[in-house]
Amino acid sequence: MEEIRAAIEKYQPFNEQEERDKSEMLWQIDHVKDLLTRKNRNAHFTVSAWIVSPDRKQVLMAYHNIYQSFAWLGGHADGDADFKHVISKEIQEESGLTDFKFVSDDIFSLEILTVDGHIKRGSYVSSHLHLNVTYLIEADPELPIRIKPDENSAIAWIPVDELKNKVNEVWFYNWIYQKLIDKIKQF
Question: Which stretches make up the Nudix hydrolase domain (predicted)?
């Protein structure tokens, strides 16, 4: 956890949401156990990818079966403290995309996300928090992609200016995806 803490400590927040979430993540790291595994049922680390085309005009999104909305790719750390490894694995599993690059080794975004209770693989998962670290990834929209039927029912490159019409989670679009769109303009 020392490397994760150092990376989060180094991160420069983009806005008030990130400033507050960074502070809370650091507190969680310093005071709570098992943040890298789902053994901590209240809060645990996840990693997401904001995957953009080289011209930054499209973003790769999956239609998430649980949330019934287009969403970024990502997943749980599940004990792996190498977050770049975690997100690389998740991108390949969720989209079939194998040729992509990290625009930077540094964290691109931080957010603490609420997860409502839901059914996953036949069992109820209680509401909890995802302490999420996001990386900026670039890939070619012409490369082959595929769905992962147990998690998503579509995967598509969506023009950034059409994203609002594809995301059914209003809070998520307004607070997370719009922030990422704005950050790309400055990157």
Answer: 42-183
